[in-house]
Specification:
Blueprint (H helix, E strand, L loop, with lengths): L1 E6 L15 E9 L2 E8 L4 E8 L4 H31 L1
Antiparallel strand pairs: 1-2, 2-3, 3-4
Length: about 90
């Protein structure tokens, strides 16, 4: 099992990419011919997990996990905004 940290800043291109993340924690776990990568936002404690082939490379797996984490955070933000609008509309 390997753990690493990375700074990730959104670029504003889409709703998922507009999620600004400071530090992201990554955990790699080898499972046979696959690697499970867990990306965690330490501020909100939201995590996203992907599985990929061992040969994909660390950077590609980190990028995929980071994109999924941004998507999950954007989805949670969107769901929260929708519930707030319904409540006060």
């Amino acid at each position: 099992m390997q753990r690493s940290r990375m700074n990730a800043v959104g670029s504003g291109e889409s709703s998922a990419k507009s999620v600004n993340l400071g530090e992201v924690l990554f955990e790699f776990s080898a499972i046979g011919n696959s690697v499970k990568v867990c990306a965690v936002d330490p501020v909100s404690l939201v995590e996203a997990t992907i599985c990929g082939p061992v040969g994909a490379g660390e950077q590609a797996l980190k990028h995929a996990a980071l994109q999924k984490l941004r998507y999950v955070l954007a989805k949670k933000r969107s769901d929260t905004d929708t519930q707030t609008k319904r409540r006060y509309a």
